[in-house]
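Recap quiz, item 2
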Amino acid sequence: MFDSRRRIQAALGWRRCMGALLLLPLGTLTGCSSEGGIRAGDYADDDASGPSAGPNSGTTDASTNGSAGSSSNTGSGGSGSSVTSGGGGTSNTPLPDGTDPVALIPARIRRLSNAEYDATAQALLGSDTRPGESFAPDARQAGFTVNDAQRVDAVLVKQLFAAAETLAAEARPSFGELAPCGSPDDAEGCAADFIEAFGSKAYRRPLEAEEAEGLLAVYRVGAEGASYEDGIELTIRAVLQSAGFLYLTELGDGSQNADGSISLTPYELANSLSYLLTAGPPDQALVDAALAGKLGTAEGRVEELLRLRDAARPESDQRLVRLIREWLEVDRIESTAKDSNIYGSFETLKPAMTSESYDFVQTVLEESSGDVRDFLGADWTVSGDGELLAMYEGSTASGGRASLSLRRGMLNQGAFLAVHAHAHESTPVLRGVAIARRLACLEIASPASLNINVVPPVPDPTQTTRERFAAHTADPVCVQCHKLIDPFGNAFELFDGMGQLRPDGKENGRDIDSSTTISLGADFDGTYADSNQLAEALANSPSVRSCFARQLFRASVARSDDSVRAAEDAFVTEIEALPTDQQGNVMDTLISYVSGPLFTHRRLP
Amino acid sequence: MSSSFLRHPAARPVARTSVHRRSFIKAVGAGLAALPFCRPIENSFAQSAGEELPLKFIGVYHPHGISAEYFVMQGSDSETSFDIAYENCVLQPFDDAGTYGKSFKDKIIAIEGIDLLSNANGHDSASTILTGSRIEGALKPQNSSLDQFLAVERGLGSDTRVTSIALGVGDADLTAGLSLSCGPGGEPLSKVIDPVEAFDILFSGVVIGDDPEAQAIAERQRRLGQSLIDFVKGDVERLRSRLAAEEQQKLDQHLDSLRDIEKQFSDSSSGGGSASCAVPSRPATIEKLRRWNGGEPFFDAITDAHIDILAQALACDITRFSTLFLADLSYSGNPLGLPADNHGGVAHTYSGTAVGTGRTAAGSASTWVPLAQFNRYSYGKIARLMQRLDSFGVLDSSLIYASTDMGDPAMHSTRNVASLIAGGANGKFRMGRRIRIDNDCPASNGWCQEGDADNTTVSNNKILVAIAQAFGEDIDAFGTQPNSDNTNGALTELF
């Protein structure tokens, strides 16, 4: 695709999507395909950086990963561990027979996301301050903030410096408990004890000698000509900026298994499991379980996952809700604004939409199916806001839940509709692209990468929005991609750019046509009268459940580029082999995720 | 693709010992000159000796394109004699002694006809301004921005306690459309959107004056900070040594960032000092900083605070490389009386003529005025920056490059963007002029494309090359474009 793009560039130069002066042969541009692989979004508002760019091999051949054969949630061949205490102990669990190490993820590190930084600092110091909320925003991959493309750049390094100073100073009143010193004559001895205890908690593993020595040297500088507490405060500042605190490692203990794979250490397993579900460090029970070898078996990991789900509340709620909100990008509602001349009530309704998007997801997870069927197809929502419920028309509230007759699932809630629209108008394109990428896992390139200059349709008070965007289907340059995008988006045109139902089904005095026909060779192909019918079909579609698994995989493995494509494909195949009622379910998908050897092993990079 | 921007690829960054520093050392002796706090004394010494101060760069972005009808040269204007005070002219602030204390008309070069060859939607093109690069697949440019090239890769920022700083108003996002400064490989760099944070980065630990208590406190802070950075550096290096090459890159940037912050702990205090260098007071916390989160009413104050802090930091030689990403005033009741949505209600309602587009169009005169008003507001901020720099005696040694990301904003066009050079540039450019570059397409073929025989695009890359040469770097190409005509050569009209 890259080569053909260059030939086109050389031959044609710029082309405008609307009003192109030359007719191009159909199929010249190969930027859009309903077959083939998935492309981590290169949408302008989406991923900022990271290895997600580049030509996509597009292969869905899952045969490289033999673990597809052992797809059940029950034990993969974990032998009992021979774990010793200390950072070096490891359960060198061999890979199940037939697992191809090539399908494993490469050994790596990843930086904590801003939310993870806050949760980790809180677990360590008990502080309520959330400095991560004012850090430079996380770079996203495939829409998710947890990813291994995150870096510490010149601005963040200063923000981390300042945050460490604030958090350490705030912790001073609790030094009596945090860093007790019964023998003030041996302050340095007390400091060494503190470093060992606090450091290992902060690094989520025992300290190495070099690390302890380094921190003691920091203590000495802080305490010199000052007090024991001053030394402790400086030590905490050092810990909060150190590599052991800021990065999660998936490197093993330095040894390699006979089959070439690397086994994660018990501490790394505990950390992976904990951050996956709670965005925070493991509790003591999880660490103990890891050291006892329990995480070497799939059953052990699943048991701990389920324990954590309940034991670590509200953290597990917050993490799972964030996951789902980032999946559909509705977490961007917080930074969405509308033209107040056109959508005057948006500012007042925004807090209610934001709360709804959070509370609804939480309720689906807690009290309902916890799966795609309800996320996309529920005929109820959760909101106590009278104005928002009035906007949803025809709903009644009872016990926190409001039943809806005119709205179905997250796609028809205010947050989704407002985020995927412009400040002054709705657009079939933004809603369509979100659905195409996140629910149908279609590869949709951005116009810029196809050398297309996009000029938006001019406002026209004699046409509906759908009619104005219809040029996409008329223009042979545009239609290649827009035949995949616009049919989804057109179904939502009964709603305006902030998610309100347009009065009387009219826009600019003309009847709105919200009917759409999807014909992609997918199991949700069909003709739908509106977005609610479409949402219902998507909610019950097997391929949407598979795509959901793919999205959750990316969010969990924290990577979405070609290096994990084989593993991703194998995971989806595994999910597709589950009973239908387990597919599309968040917890069941995570259970599958932690059960496989992908979770416990890495390959050499 | 031509992606070279080094004439001599083997060249390494060198710390420059400038002419004025050598004279200073000669005058006071090497021992005294080695003390970390002598920079402001050096500056005033240099000034009194008639030597020029180190050249400083400020890259500025202002949004929403340009109201070309009120930007371009008028009928009676010539290169060196022009009127920018007429009604609605966007450049009025540069000839407004009443507001800014003096006219800065002789310290600007206004350039028409430059194209940004981003190959992307206008909204994604800001990062082409300082990189001269196409915006590619992952929606980012392909090479580092000029400020980073000069400050980091060529080492021109290594002498100052802060290598470079990227400031922004309202939006900290790391996207190509919201970034001026980009690191190696074109990765957008974080912007500081909080003036309090900017102050802390630039001035924390800096003590001007003889107060021994203040000096002692500063010295202790320096020692603590140094020990922290030493530990963290060692710690990151320990982890790095366990990683494969690909993974090591993640920590390389971390280490570079640590070396950067380390400088402020080795060069913290300043004794004595000239009248031009004083530590400004720490700005008050600003309630709201971010777009779409109630920040808009504070943007004007944030911009002014950034400008004031930056100007003082440049005067104190704390940094020599900076960028400033301006925002609009999209809120109800904004002081310009413009529609609450500056984008939809001003930039997209603009209907331009052939003057800015090169293509025949009737345009609609009433739509030029609101956009011009917004442009004037943005240029007013640059005039404020010039006024501050001038008051600190460093305008003559400053080089400002300001650009929009779009020419005609309603068309999202990146052709005919408004480009401005300002300051004294240490005499390297001939200031006080207007330059009109021929339009990229003839009237007979208004939609001509790159590569067409009648296309005469002049890209902003040529401005970047000229600026690099003004900084003493011997290069003749900059940026990443498929056609080397567009990366090669300086805009010689500037010299």
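Confidence is low (pLDDT under 50) at residues 1-31, 33-91 of chain A.
The first helix of chain A runs from residue 2 to 12.
End of item.
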